[in-house]
């Protein structure tokens, strides 16, 4: 059973890797006085172990397991580390990849785009501009009007009605 779960996880990573690197949007313009800076020990005290693994160590939750994957309430998705507003619920869609997917961010200055060559893929990682937490990746296979798919770990976000 464990082997089946690992195969499903590997397949989901491949299906969520996109066809190439997304053209990054402008870099963060948030000034340093708005940034959240904590020691790793402070992060460990305020985040759950899963949130810490994803946000601070660039981990990934198992596909189809996150609490926001099938979530449909109206509201705002915020960074679980610092509560910066990131995604409106009306930009959320089911990409079928196992993670919550959004077609756009609230404001392009809320995230930082970085080329990620890990796991044998070329992707664009997105991190929270305010606290530096790993959110997920963005791909260029999303719906109109943006054509983007922000593939986000549920552990990296919270929800506000």
Overall mean pLDDT: 87
Compute the CA-based radius of gyration: 15 Å
Enumerate the spans where pLDDT stays under 50 for 5 or more consecutive residues.
2-15, 19-29
Morphology call: globular
**Helicity level:** 10-25%
| Class by SSE composition | alpha+beta
Supply the key terms:
Metal Binding Protein, Guanine Nucleotide Exchange Factor, Chain A; 6-stranded antiparallel beta sheet; 24% strand
Present the secondary structure layout.
Layout: H1 2-15, H2 40-46, H3 49-57, E1 76-79, E2 85-88, E3 92-93, E4 101-102, E5 111-116, E6 123-128, E7 134-139, E8 149-152, E9 157-160
Describe what you observe in this structure.
It is a single chain. This protein is an alpha+beta fold. The protein has a single domain, classed as Beta Complex (Metal Binding Protein, Guanine Nucleotide Exchange Factor, Chain A). The protein has 3 helices and 9 strands. The longest helix has 14 residues.
Could you give a quick summary of the protein structure above?
Helix content is 19%, strand content 24%.
């Amino acid at each position: 059973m464990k082997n089946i779960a690992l195969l499903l996880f590997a397949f989901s990573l491949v299906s969520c890797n996109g066809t190439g690197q997304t053209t990054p949007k402008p870099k963060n313009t948030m000034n340093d006085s708005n940034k959240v800076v904590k020691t790793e020990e402070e992060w460990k005290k305020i985040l759950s172990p899963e949130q810490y693994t994803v946000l601070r160590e660039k981990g990934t939750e198992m596909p189809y397991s996150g609490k926001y994957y099938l979530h449909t309430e109206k509201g705002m998705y915020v960074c679980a580390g610092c509560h910066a507003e990131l995604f409106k619920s009306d930009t959320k869609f089911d990409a079928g990849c196992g993670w919550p997917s959004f077609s756009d961010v609230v404001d392009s200055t809320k995230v930082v785009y970085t080329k990620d060559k890990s796991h044998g893929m070329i992707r664009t990682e997105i991190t929270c501009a305010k606290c530096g937490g790993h959110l997920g990746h963005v791909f260029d296979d999303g719906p109109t009007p943006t054509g983007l798919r922000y593939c986000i770990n549920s552990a990296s976000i919270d929800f506000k009605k």
